[in-house]
Every structure is written in structure tokens, then in C-alpha cells.
Amino acid sequence: MPLPSHSASAPFTDIDKLIAVLVDSLVSPIPHGARVKIGVLPFVSGEKGLLEEAGSEGRAIAEKIIIALVGHPGRYSVVDRLDYQKALGEIALSQTGVTETTIEIELGRFMTADYLISGTISAVMGQSAIRAKMVKVESGEIVSASQSVIGTSVLSQAATELFSEQQSVLSYTFRSAVVPGWGQFYAQQPVRGAISFVLGIGGASVSVYSWVSTANRKNERDEFSEFVNTNSGRSRLEDMSGYAIGTDGFIRWFGAEKGRYHDEYQKMLTTAKIATAATAGVWILNMIDASFAGRQKRRAIQLYFSATLEAVGTGLTYTY
Fold it and tell me: Domain range spanning residue 282?
């Protein structure tokens, strides 16, 4: 019986479409209705061995494949990370001078997987050629294979999104510290982002307006107090009060007016302080919410392989 395989004629421009085609091709030999356990290995560069360090692009492909498989919980289950790490450690310690195929089969058996998916990545004139295969662990038979090409920049971007900035909660928090709501938008939480933006910018606007008004009230108070020191100012005060300077009526009026200017300044100063404190609180809550949105985004990505290698091979960081 011919080996089920797939080969794309044109380069993919969307990593998710490539993975969908690749997974559909690889799992096509699995009998319909069968529940099977599948292990997925990080894809390696064409010149590297199975137990050598896999690049971020190879881990990204494996992550995407696992996410696609997990999307069919009633049909496929994915090898637990602890089983994977244990199997990798056993193979690394016990296997020397054996073929890659033998290592794959042994890995699958240690993980108690029914099938094992692995593959390689090769650079071809600015494109990345991805070759994948699925092995039936019990017999060691390659039951399906797939080959596709994707832009190297597209593949690198996918790896960056999985392992780099979007996996750091601080990247979400920092964005919302700069512009409220930015971190939430970055985590694809537009409603929360819009609320944070409106509250944060609105609070900042009220604070700025309050401090400007406070400065104006202070200037008015100081200018009123200085009127008595100039001839033009004294004449203006007499016109405003209706009393001659030095009379009891003027003194009472001047004291009351000076107190009024001071009270208005103090009231606006208190308002500015309250507005600033409230804005700071909103900004901090916005940053906290951004960090939670970042954590939710990380869980949604469902990473299995870590961004950095652990003691042996490529470790798994999340258990599904």
C-alpha cells in the first residue's frame, strides 16, 4: 500500500494553514473513531541529530502541531511532558551509535505513545522546507509523510510569538504602563483594553486640568495680594471694594477676598491631588489587569516545549 504523503507546490504564507495541512496529512492513516496517543518531537535542522538542540523554529512547529492535535480531544491525546522528559533522559543516557529511526522508536515506547511525529527544517533560498513524518511505534513503520515550504521570515515570526516577547508577562505590563490598555489589546482583550484606555486617559486628562487650574488659582491669589504694593493696584482695589484703602470697611473686604482666593486655591489643590491619586490607582489596576491578560494569553498558547533547553534535550514546560 502506498505511503500517505503530501507535498505543497507553493510556499505557505500562514503558519497555521501550513500546520493544518501538515497535521491532516500525517494523521490521515489513523482509523476513524480510534483514540490514539501521539508524541511530538521538536523539529530539527537537517544537519542535526534527533537528540541535539532544536532551534526555536523547530520547537515552534512542534508546538503548533500539538495545539492542532489538542484541538481534537475526543480523538487524540498528547504525551505528557513528564513522560517526554523521562524518555528523553533515558535515551540520552543509554543509546550510543544507533540510528535516528531507532531512537525515535525507543522514545515512542518510553512515552507509551501509539504514534510519533518528527521532522526536519532545511533552508532553501530564503524559504524553509519542512519535512514531517509519523511513525507507528509498535511496528516502527513510517505511516505518513508531508513536505511543505514556508517563508523563513514567517516561520521566525511564529517562533517569536510563541517563545519570546508574548511569553513574558512583563511585556504586557510594560505596554500598559506606557499607554493604559495597550497590554490588554496586545493580549487580544479589546474590551478590557478599551475600558483601561478610557479610564486611564480620562483620569490623566482630569488630573492635568486640575493641576493647571490649581496653578491659575495660585497666580490669582498671589496677584490679588500684590495689588496693595502698587499705585495702580491700590486704585483697582478701591474700585473693586468701594472703600478707601486703610478704612475698616476696606480691611474687612480685603481680608475676606484674600481668604476667598486662598480657599479656592486650596480646594482646587485638593481636587488635583485626589484626581492624581485616583488616576495612579486606575493606572496600577490597568497594569495588574494587563499582567493577568498576559498570563491568560500564555495559557491560551498552550506551550509544551520551553523557550530554553533544560538539562537533557528540549524540555516541556506545560502539561495538558
Answer: 173-300
Q: How many CB atoms lie within 10 A of CB 24?
A: 12
Give the number of domains in the chain: 2
- pTM for this structure? 0.53
Which ranges constitute the DSSP H helices of the chain?
15-27, 56-70, 81-94, 100-110, 152-163, 169-178, 182-186, 190-226, 231-241, 248-301
Same domain, 149 and 229: no
State pLDDT tens for residues 187-245. Answer: 888 999 999 999 999 999 999 999 999 999 999 888 888 887 777 777 888 888 888 87
> pLDDT for 73-88, tens place per residue?
667 888 776 666 666 6
Q: Are 136 and 101 in contact (CB under 8 A)?
A: no
Q: Both 179 and 59 in a single domain?
A: no
Residue 89 grid cell = 533522559
Amino acid residing at 84: Y
CA 167, 92, 131, 65 torsion: positive or negative?
A: negative
319 in a structural domain:
no
